[in-house]
Amino acid sequence: MNGARNKLSLVLIAGLLPLFLILVLIVPLWIYFTGESLFISTMLTFAEVKNDTLQITTVSPLRQLLLLAILYLPAGLFAFAIWQGMSVTRQVRQKQILSRPLANSVRKIAIAMLSLGIALPMSRFLIPLTIAWPGHYYQVTLLLGDFVLLLTGSLLLVTFHSLVEGIKAEEENKEFI
Length: 177
Fold this sequence. Notes:
This protein has 177 residues and is an all-alpha fold. It has one domain. It is built from five helices and no strands. It has helices spanning 2-33, 36-46, 61-93, 100-131, 144-176. α1 packs antiparallel against α3 (61-93) and α4 runs antiparallel to α5. It is elongated, with a radius of gyration of 21 Å. It holds the Pfam family DUF2975.
């Protein structure tokens, strides 16, 4: 019964991860093409800036494209982490638990999470800067989620090193036998 439950959860994860990947890549474009006012207000909401503090009615098309690129920085890192998660899921389904490709995928997820923990505050700083340049003062907003991303990425990096040590021990045992 436990094996069937594990297989079902792996199938569910394997089905949901591509859906998340598609959503992460499409949603920023959908927000961009919904209209300038909704795009700007969504970007300011993402940056944790109150809409009434910045009275912006229009933003140049070049700045809108720059805002889209700023939005795709964390979205791209998250999509990369999901892609590597799909690789981990595929390897676990093939029973390749102690393998170097699995360990490298875990390392790439850890690096993506650490990068995301840095990219999100940077994006929240760059968005109002891009919209209202020059004029207002700007601040870096650090949220609890940023620290959670950094801690989780660090934990995954430690897990990667543990996997590498386990792989080395398994290879030494195979050579010894």
